[in-house]
Amino acid sequence: NIFKIQEFKDYINTYDSSTLVNLLKVNGNFEDANTLQTGWNAVYTTNSKITGIFGTKAQKCISTSTDGKHYIYYDMPSYAVTGHKYFFCMSVKNVTSSSRLYMLYQNSAGDYVGSASYSNVFNNTNFIKMCGTLEVLSLYSTPVLRYFILIFKADGTESYAGSTEEINIDGAMVVDLTNMGDLPASLRRFFNSSSYTTWASLATTSN
Are 188 and 181 in contact (CB under 8 A)? Predict the structure, then answer.
């Protein structure tokens, strides 16, 4: 219930990507030599690199036998700004699992707030781009902003003792829509609405 998501997905697939600033930088494409890409943190996953769909590598994560939630996340507190809206996406392949991606921040009261928009639990055998948005309404004195991809069991179970649940991910992106300013003229003409004049206006509470 937030977003002209399909239009933005089409844009990042077809438009001049130089207009987008991926806050993950090179760490969104998983190209380094580490088993887990620099900047990412793992909780109860075993990690390695495989052949990618963007560049040469993608990230492979398999749940461990520990009972609990299994995920990797990217900590990005320096990009947390009150009042800003963020778009996030990732290409994900569920090999023996299902999964979900989302973002969260810590508000001024100290509560963790997840993205109102996040990917549904999905189960697919080919890479598919999933996405959502987050609006930061207030921030704790020590800012927290994190991007997560969770590995669920194939039936959607979130907390479990892992075995062989596997995801492959590539092309991770987080974009500060507010910082991007006004929509280019071509997209303003496409939407043909006074409601959509800035990138941040694409993230709404009504659609």
Answer: no
Smallest CA-to-CA distance from 164 within 91, 72, 94 is with 94
Locus of tokens 């659609």 = 207
C-alpha to C-alpha distance for 64 and 83, rounded to whole angstroms: 38
CB 36 within 8 A of CB 59: yes
Quick: pLDDT tens for 85-136. 998 989 999 988 989 999 999 999 999 999 876 666 666 778 988 888 899 9
Q: Contact at 8 Å (CB) between 82 and 137?
A: yes
Q: Read off φ and ψ for residue 194, nearest 5 degrees.
A: -70, -10
Phi then psi for residue 185, to 5 deg, are -55, -35
In single-letter form, the type of residue at position 180 comes to M
Q: How far apart, in Å, are the Cα atoms of 103 and each of 53, 145, 148, 157, 194?
A: 23, 7, 6, 19, 28
The residue-averaged pLDDT of 21-37 equals: 95
Q: Tell me which residue of 74, 50, 73, 48 sits closest to 61, measured CA to CA.
A: 48
Residue 53 contacts residue 127 (beta carbons within 8 Å): yes
Whole-number Å distance between alpha carbons of 133 and 123: 20
With contact defined as beta carbons under 8 Å apart, do 92 and 131 qualify? Answer: no
Residue 49 has pLDDT above 90, yes or no: yes
